[in-house]
Design goal:
transport; transmembrane helix; Growth Hormone, Chain: A; mainly alpha; two-stranded antiparallel ribbon; MFS_dom; transmembrane
Length: 217
């Protein structure tokens, strides 16, 4: 069988744009064309029709991905932070009367237990917001959840009133970074499911009621 001496020239896929294109390994202006580069170039022409690279927004990617396992994992993480926030707030209604009896605290000292939590929240919220914008909301929320859990458990082992005040301040400081969980979760939801899923997410804070129920067991 006789083969042509020269390989066939590339013909444009688009009518009215017929032109000669370089083929693989052809030297053009002192540069050898690579087959992979040509394939990518031709594929872009087929996709766009105007020789330009396709672009997509983050919203397009989220809509294309839909609702799946990743959103479920994110719901568990962000819901745990919301529940932890609620638990730490409801804990104040149980912790104050108990410590008043054990350590014979005054009304001012009991009120300080609540005040330091919100003071920590006041200082923590802007700092955690800056950290989340700089390093990402996901790692920030993992750190925040770890801090809330750690300092919350250590509070139960506090030997004196001063230590309780310090630890409750640190808990409030960590809670200040939990607000970005709502924003993070909403960013990965499609428009179709966003309203319903966020409504369910808000109810995750009701898990904090379990702590109050355990206090009376």
């Amino acid at each position: 069988m006789n083969y042509p001496s020269d390989p066939p020239m590339y013909q444009s896929l688009f009518p009215g744009k017929a032109e000669d294109k370089p083929y693989a390994n052809e030297i053009v202006n002192g540069t050898r064309s690579d087959s992979d580069d040509l394939n990518k170039s031709y594929l872009n022409e087929v996709i766009t029709g105007d020789n330009s690279s396709p672009t997509h927004t983050v919203e397009d990617a989220v809509e294309s991905a839909g609702l799946g396992r990743f959103q479920l994992k994110l719901f568990v993480l962000c819901g745990a932070i919301s529940a932890a926030d609620a638990m730490e707030m409801l804990l104040l209604s149980v912790l104050g009367p108990a410590l008043r009896c054990y350590w014979l605290l005054s009304s001012g000292q009991v009120a300080a237990l609540t005040t330091v939590v919100f003071a920590g929240f006041l200082f923590g919220a802007p700092l955690w917001g800056f950290i989340a914008d700089r390093f990402g909301r996901w790692p920030t929320l993992l750190i925040v959840l770890s801090m809330i859990t750690y300092f919350g458990i250590i509070t139960s082992c506090a030997p004196t009133y001063i230590w309780v005040i310090i630890l409750r301040f640190l808990v409030g400081f960590a809670i200040g970074g939990g607000n970005s969980s709502f924003t993070l979760f909403s960013e990965f939801l499609t428009v179709k499911h966003r309203a319903k899923v966020l409504l369910a997410f808000i109810y995750s804070g009701l898990l904090g009621v379990i702590e109050v129920a355990l206090a009376y067991v």
